[in-house]
């Protein structure tokens, strides 16, 4: 939110935050006018659907798993006996599907649903970004994070496709925000390394 506030302030615009359950939902609403600028992890599929500005953060995805199952690393999760879930429409789930050779992960609409399945012991692992997993570790009893990752993605600012002037303005603004330290300060405020 800090970065969105900085962009709105620099542009002299009011900030109207629109909430979605996942980055996949943000992308699916790219053509309905519900948002004009957002931030999501980028992959080739998303590059085809939205205008992509400069990346400002690189994150990795791995698995939240049930402690005590002997799942220590990413490779351990790829077993026919492990039930995996991910949030549909996300780059993380698409990468998990590509990387898993012995199982097909289940998809759900929202993270809350995935966590509920995990808590109810209906799944053994959730494919998620590392930062999301770290935020869940203190709140989901019996959860652990495996070592390694199956996906690395840059997060970038995006605009709906077909808006070249907005994309060019966003690119210039992100360059300024990077140079003046605003992006690093926003990442640090959320405990992310710039």
From TrEMBL:
Which SUPFAM superfamilies does the UniProt entry name for this protein? Periplasmic binding protein-like II
Q: Which residues form the Solute-binding protein family 3/N-terminal domain?
A: 3-190
Keywords carried by this UniProt record: Signal
| InterPro entries assigned to the protein according to its UniProt record, in alphabetical order | Solute-binding_3/MltF_N
Q: Which domain of life is it from?
A: Bacteria
Q: Which Pfam families match?
A: SBP_bac_3
Q: Does the keyword Signal apply?
A: yes
Query: What is this protein identified as?
Result: Polar amino acid transport system substrate-binding protein
- In which organism is this protein found? Ancylobacter amanitiformis
């Amino acid at each position: 939110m800090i970065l969105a506030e900085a962009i709105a302030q620099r542009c002299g615009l009011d900030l109207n935050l629109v909430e979605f359950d996942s980055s996949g939902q943000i992308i699916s609403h790219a053509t309905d006018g519900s948002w004009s600028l957002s931030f999501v992890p980028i992959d080739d599929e998303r590059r085809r659907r939205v205008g992509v500005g400069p990346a400002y953060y690189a994150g990795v995805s791995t698995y939240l798993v049930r402690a005590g199952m002997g799942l220590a690393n990413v490779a351990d999760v790829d077993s026919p006996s492990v039930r995996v879930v991910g949030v549909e429409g996300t780059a993380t789930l698409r990468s998990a599907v590509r990387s898993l050779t012995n199982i097909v992960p289940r998809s759900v609409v929202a993270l809350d649903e995935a966590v509920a399945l995990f808590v109810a012991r209906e799944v053994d692992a959730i494919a998620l970004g590392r930062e999301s997993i770290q935020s869940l570790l203190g709140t989901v009893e019996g959860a652990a994070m495996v070592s390694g990752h199956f996906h690395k993605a840059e997060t970038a600012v995006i605009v709906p496709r077909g808006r070249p002037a907005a994309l060019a303005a966003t690119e210039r603004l992100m360059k300024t925000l990077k140079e003046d330290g605003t992006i690093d300060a926003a990442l640090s405020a959320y405990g992310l390394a710039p």
